[in-house]
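Researcher: Please translate sequence to structure tokens.
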Amino acid sequence: MIRRSLLLPLLLLAASACVHVKVQQSPATAETEIRARLDSTAMGWNLGDLAAYLAAYTPDASEMLPDGVAHGRDRIEQTMRQGFWKSGRTLQQLHYEHVEVRMLGDDNALVTGQYVLTGAGRPQRTGWFTTVWARTSDGWRMIHDHS
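Model: Translation complete:
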């Protein structure tokens, strides 16, 4: 009798272990998280913290360069060190304007906007960017940057 009474709960437990539940995030929540992660890149930039700036990228992220696509966060770091971080930190402050987040399903997003560099007695520099984001186990991260 005890064996039969345990059989049903054990079968239900085994069946529930086989079910994969995907918690769907609302587009508004995803957009908020993506915007916060994007803002963290500006914060890292403005503090002269390249590691904080790069933390928004996946290890295998790519970037568009004048001569084509470069792959890997290490390559993106190299690009930054040869350019904006030549002196060990950036000279101007960074912020973003006109940012739009367009969800591409539940786990990807296209983010466009304008970057603005100001200060240090230099002329303001602006440009447009497009980034592609993916939901990862570490949260939303950039998988491609075209800026």
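Researcher: Any highlights?
Model: Helices lie at 2-17, 27-46, 50-54, 73-82.
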